[in-house]
């Protein structure tokens, strides 16, 4: 990756996107899917936002900073929801989301 | 990431997607953009394919293996084109594409 | 849209992608989410595949035909699952998927 | 499409995303690619933003309105750049972008 300025945020977003995808799929395989509906909903948005954030930063897009500000919001919302659930996939996702939120907030300034 | 089976291929695809985005943007800033047109075109397709491959594997989608077979093709095409150009971004992209092609081929079997 | 050759397939894919997104979200709001888990899973894959199919065709990508062949498969799988459920969002999605499968199959030849 | 509230904005975004993809590809085939570099760069960002805007609205995501506000900005930037170029693909793209910007601005309020 050549964009050293954005590098740690790109990695955090790229990782968070995939952890959210995995979390949504694992939630769908839980016995009580009902209880995971909100988590799945946020995972989907968070995955899409983080994936595009990583893309825009890799491009050094002029949109990147403003996008990161919005991305941080969904990361926090998703991380807070995931943190409520004890399954490993949700706990792992909560950590990835919170880390990504911090990276995006730092980028957005 | 919980999908250990797919793990190294997910990482290769995720990395390749972003390196292709960065390469396309760097190509657009070259003095002779004309010479890079084919490279940019392939970078765009390769970035999209690799990003979706990483997503599908993270989801453990039943489509993942067949998708990886197709993804390997565009990675090879993009890697071969990039390898022709001496700029760092193209050489780095060629490496990421070839590595990703191998990982996807292994996954596709 | 300038790609008249691909035009009706692009429209079918573009529409199917969004109908699948709407169907997944509506499924998550059903009382018995459990029963919709498979539908949501397929909706996610189908939405991503159709969205990328539309993109590749709009670009006149050399990958478009092979991609459409794979896209048709997930459209059929998603359409068959949706057809089993009586809710409007699933019935509408089944129709969009089947129409898209046919368009993609025609394109793939 | 079941989201009547968002419907015309979803259609504008979905169309704009694909017109931008087509415009970027057509720009890459122009004799003077150099002159189109900025246009291609904006087309890529605008295509990605509009595609995700359409997705989020189709999901009735709580992020949709804020996302549309940001999407409107890139649509305007891309539309203004495209409007400078006389080729049909750029003129068509300028129109799609400006229409999409207006729809997104209306949605964002």
From TrEMBL, chains A, B, C, D:
Membrane spanning residue stretches: none
Highest taxon of the lineage: Bacteria
Pfam families tied to this protein: Csp
Family annotation (CDD domains): DUF326 (cd08026)
InterPro entries in the cross-refs: Csp_YhjQ (IPR005560), YHJQ-like (IPR044543)
Protein name from the UniProt record: Four-helix bundle copper-binding protein
Organism expressing this protein natively: Stutzerimonas nitrititolerans
């Amino acid at each position: 990756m050549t964009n050293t300025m954005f590098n740690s945020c790109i990695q955090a977003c790229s990782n968070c996107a995939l952890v959210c995808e995995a979390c949504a799929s694992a939630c769908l395989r839980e016995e009580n899917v009902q209880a995971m509906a909100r988590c799945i909903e946020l995972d989907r948005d968070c995955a899409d936002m983080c994936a595009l954030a990583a893309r825009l930063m890799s491009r050094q897009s002029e949109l990147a900073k403003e996008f990161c500000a919005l991305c941080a919001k969904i990361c926090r919302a998703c991380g807070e929801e995931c943190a409520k659930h004890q399954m490993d996939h949700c706990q792992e996702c909560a950590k990835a989301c919170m880390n990504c939120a911090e990276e995006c907030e730092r980028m957005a300034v």
